[in-house]
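@channel sequence for tomorrow's demo:
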Amino acid sequence: MQNDFYMLFEDKFRGSKEEIKKRLSVYLPCVNYLKEIDSNAFALDLGCGRGEWLELLIENNWKVLGIDFNDEMIKECSKKNIPAMCGDAIKYLEKKEEASVSLISGFHLAEHLEFDNLLCLIRNAYRVLRPGGILILETPNPENILVSTYTFYLDPSHNNPIPPVLLQFITENSGFIKNEIVRLNSIELKDEGDLLSRQLMNYNGANRDYSIIAQKGFDDMRYDKCLELINKKPPALDLLLEKVGIKDLKFRNMDAQIQGMNAQIQGMNAQIEKKNNWSIKKFLNLLRNK
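structure tokens (generated this afternoon):
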């Protein structure tokens, strides 16, 4: 795929730089606390794209470097004096010295990789991170029906959607001691229309993205607080269940009506069976009398 084409694609479908920076700011309380502990904190952003996350980190006094294979993206970073280099993120990690980085991130990178490459990236990230260091991987959320059936495939360079529990298992298996799923970017849940319409509407809008935030083991217990600072609002899917699931009064009333109808039908079947049995017996008696 031509690099200039993908740059234009990102501009049209990814969202404005200001919008992306606003979405990414959810991670700042966690990573800034990490920087307070690590006086020489350094962040590496893999697949850095136009540099929104790097710019946000620089504004919060982080030392940073971005890696992206698309030279058009690197040019965009250079326009804002954002440190970034053109190259292969996995190869760069493989050559990076052990325990040398405080924060490694990859926003909408994982879904572009073959499984073996994803596994290689995460295991090398674990090696390169310092004790207490954090890995953030954000990716489209296939729990959202619209994402898993439509919007994921808008990007021709996407490989496969990754279920949250699978990505969480990979980080656990790679040695990370904390592995949080954080569901993100939900639209406002609606209470309009009938039950089925609301369910479909809300499943289509709930948590379009999610991230795995994984932390390497540590001895300094100050690091224990990092993941607690992520803004974990109730996941939209949980809110959906609360709004249109078992707790929905209309749903409960509907369920009670269905149960009542089932009881009536069972009663009618019993009466029909009783009547049929009486008719059969009467017919047999008539035959015997003949």
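heads up for whoever presents: The two ends are 91 Å apart (CA to CA).
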